[in-house]
Write a structure and sequence with these properties.
The protein is of the alpha+beta class. The chain has two domains: about 220 residues, 3-Layer(aba) Sandwich (Rossmann fold), CATH 3.40.50.880; about 190 residues, Sandwich (Jelly Rolls), CATH 2.60.120. About 15% of the residues lie in helices and about 30% in strands. The chain is built from seven helices and 26 strands. The strands form five sheets. It has a nine-stranded mixed sheet with strand order 2-1-3-4-11-10-9-6-7. Strands 12, 14, 15, 17, 20, 23, 24 and 26 form an eight-stranded antiparallel sheet that branches. The protein has a five-stranded antiparallel sheet with strand order 13-16-25-18-19, with no helix packed on it. Strand 3, helix 4 and strand 4 form a beta-alpha-beta unit. Helix 2 packs across helix 7. The radius of gyration is 24 Å and the shape is elongated. The two termini are about 20 Å apart.
């Protein structure tokens, strides 16, 4: 792995460690051994998840259903249930959980989370199905139906595991995206209830602006010790976290460029006051308001910025898709564009180092959905006599995926200013339609 990528991922881990996941392990019905606590000690599942997630996100483990409140959920990017029965959560707080996911939070169910809230139909809709018995408790073969999903990485086309295997009712593939299922050739299929023989064991789905991930594995302590399951679960949680609610909090020492309230750190390119609008905690481009630049200049840094494109106003002739850009030192543009439908990444598409290099992969989300860039930038180097000795280098992580890995930029990009040895500001482009930005900060790096 390239040095810049390692640095970027370490920095990303430092920031994302502050992103929190609430892990609820309350049993109002059958109590699984893996969530049994002994005195003040955490359970097997709680310890395992905290260990597996270390360096990626913080796991706050609790068996107290009082943690599910609107105010407390604001502190988390995702909620994970390993639960059973009719949980003692008020109707108000159940609504708060649904609202949390609907507005962009992540929800993850593990194993018996489907053996929960039978009397609350909205929960069944949220998680995607209900437990309907476990016909098999043995070594089974599992088919990986979507090896491209992050939660299924490195599992191959199939794998074998010893665990308690569920079947489900109130479940339909029409409502979820199945990630893996039981290979019925590895068991006595006649013991199952489903006439269609469909025994899905993990799935994902959207819920409003949020994401839901469920895995039926996780009954046995040995499974929680299995690196495959740990990777599967942590990657599923990370996928669910990556909804609109995810806000990577600025680490200590960061320069906050936009905190959701004002434009004090910015000015127009011509030095006049910013005319962009602050709307719902986001900074929105005011068409014909002009591009804006930071009042500070920067050299080597890691930057985090979240953005959302929108359909271009039809009255603006010639522009069909949301368009803007993040200009580093006013010289190098990381393109912003509604490129979700592009079949292949383009040099002028979202995530591109504009006109120089297309993103390695298209991970763009649709217009109207929040996205993020984490950019690690090292400025070009110059000798004392004014000659360039090294090109600028950049790593870009979009929505959690590396799309440029320590790319060496051969000169300025797009309409950027001429290269030079001096640090420069960050520019956000007015390209004529109301792209929004939020949670913008950077951490300077030493040379």
């Amino acid at each position: 792995m390239k040095l810049a990528t390692i640095l970027s991922l370490l920095l990303a881990a430092s920031a994302s460690a502050q992103a929190k996941v609430l892990f609820l392990t309350h049993s109002a019905g059958f109590r699984h051994g893996v969530v049994n606590r002994h005195g003040n000690e955490l359970s097997t599942a709680e310890r395992a998840l905290q260990a597996a997630a270390r360096g990626q996100f913080e796991v706050v483990a609790t068996d107290d259903c009082g943690a599910i409140t609107a105010s407390n959920l604001e502190n988390f990017s995702a909620v994970v249930f390993y639960t059973t029965g009719e949980l003692p959560i008020s109707s108000e707080n159940r609504d708060a959980l649904l609202d949390f996911v609907n507005t962009g939070g992540g929800f993850v169910g593990v194993h018996s989370a489907t053996d929960t809230f039978y009397r609350w139909p909205e929960y069944g809709e949220l998680i995607g199905g209900y437990f309907d018995g476990h016909p098999w408790h043995q070594k089974v073969r599992i088919k990986v139906e979507d090896p491209s999903h992050p939660a299924m990485a490195r599992l191959g086309r199939s794998f074998e595991i010893m665990d308690e295997i569920y079947q489900f009712k109130s479940f339909s593939r029409d409502r979820v995206h199945v990630l893996m299922s039981l290979d019925t050739g590895s068991v006595d299929a006649g013991r199952g209830k489903r006439g269609d023989g469909d025994y899905a064991l993990a799935w994902s789905r959207s819920y409003g602006n949020g994401r839901v991930f469920y895995t039926a594995l996780g009954h046995r302590p040995e499974v929680w010790a299995d690196p495959r399951f740990r990777r599967h679960l942590v990657a599923g949680i990370r996928w669910a976290m990556n909804g609109e609610r995810v806000l990577a909090r600025p680490p200590k020492g960061a320069t906050v460029l936009f905190d959701g309230t004002n434009t004090d750190m910015w000015t127009r390119v011509d030095g006049k006051p910013v005319r962009w609008k602050v709307v719902d905690g986001a900074l929105e481009v005011t068409p014909r308001g002009g591009s804006i630049i930071t009042k500070q200049s920067f050299e080597d840094f890691r930057m985090h910025i979240e953005f959302r494109t929108s359909n271009h106003p039809p009255e603006v002739k010639g522009q069909k898709r949301g368009n803007s850009g993040v200009y580093i030192q006013r010289r190098y543009e990381v393109q912003i564009l509604d490129s979700h439908s592009d079949k292949v990444p383009l040099k002028n598409g979202c995530g591109a180092i504009y006109r120089r290099k297309a993103a390695d992969v298209n991970v763009c989300r649709p217009a109207g959905v929040w996205q993020s860039y984490d950019i690690t930038f090292r400025a070009p180097r110059w000798s004392d006599d004014g000659k360039k000795t090294a090109n600028a280098r950049i790593t870009v992580i979009q929505n959690g995926v590396v799309i440029h890995d320590d790319y060496e930029i051969p000169g300025k990009t797009g309409a950027g200013q001429k290269e030079g040895p001096a640090p420069g500001p960050i520019l956000l482009q007015d390209h004529g339609n109301p792209v929004r930005f939020r949670n913008v900060w950077m951490v300077p790096m030493s040379s």
